[in-house]
Specification:
- This protein is of the alpha/beta class.
- It folds into 2 domains: 142 residues, HAD superfamily/HAD-like (Rossmann fold, 3-Layer(aba) Sandwich), CATH 3.40.50; 79 residues, Putative phosphatase, domain 2 (DNA polymerase, domain 1, Orthogonal Bundle), CATH 1.10.150.
- The chain contains 9 helices and 6 strands, in the order βαααααβαβαβαββα.
């Protein structure tokens, strides 16, 4: 195994919980629209709206809530009330104000690795919301650089590596999404450590893990990362 000098970390569902907050709101959303449609129809229509709007709104709570309101209007043929829309807005505000809850072993692992490696956060989503979560997490001191991107694809990672003078072969990306955190980095010649979260948004799902011997690693939790790097 190569020695990776620089380690990039995804944020949402890698360092702190995120998708479980969305799932809770999804449950409330289904309940709100239950008098109009069954849960499967609500989920399918909302996801289609999110995908249609992704290029316009990007990732994060604000884009999700705009798509949720649009979907509610569509599914109710415009009959949704102002009070129900006010309820949706309150749900979105609650998501943004939700406490930042770290995953198991995150603080200890980062503290150990920061002493021996150059660490970066590379995440995507709403700039203000991601900055808020990082500030509340108490983790900022461990990272030399923070990159909040509108998309995490091969071109975006190439730009980040170029901007910080990092060679792909010395870079390891750690994250919960194969699609956003692992596959683009492998394509550039870097390495990826996949730490799955128990919930995965449909847009981030990948059917098969990548085949990249010696560059792709599967971890059960972030606590396993230091041992992997010592291997």
């Amino acid at each position: 195994m190569k020695s990776y000098r620089v380690i990039g970390f995804d944020a949402d569902d890698t360092l702190w919980h995120n998708e479980n907050i969305f799932e809770h709101v999804h449950e409330r959303y289904r309940e709100l629209l239950a008098q109009y449609h069954d849960a499967a129809t609500v989920d399918r229509t909302l996801f289609a709206t999110e995908m249609r709007n992704l290029a316009l709104y990007g990732y994060g709570v604000k884009g999700f809530m705009l798509s949720a309101i649009e979907t509610a209007i569509e599914l109710t043929d415009g009959r949704i009330s102002a009070e129900e829309i006010r309820t949706l807005l309150a749900l979105g505000r609650g998501m943004i104000e939700h406490p930042v809850e770290l995953l198991d072993g995150v603080a200890e692992t980062l503290a150990a690795l920061a002493a021996t490696h150059r660490l970066l956060i590379i995440t995507k989503g709403d700039l203000r919301d991601q900055e808020r979560k990082l500030a509340k997490s108490g983790l900022r001191e461990f990272f030399q650089h923070v990159e909040i991107l509108s998309e995490k694809d091969e071109a975006a990672y190439a730009s980040v590596l170029r901007r910080h003078g990092i060679a792909a072969e010395e870079f390891l990306m750690v994250g919960n999404s194969l699609k956003s955190d692992i596959l683009p980095v492998l394509a550039l010649g870097g390495a990826g450590a996949h730490v799955p979260y128990h919930l995965t948004w449909g847009h981030e799902r990948v059917d098969q893990p990548p085949v990249a011997p010696g560059r792709f690693f599967q971890l059960a939790g972030l606590r396993e990362l230091p041992a992997l790097l010592r291997a």
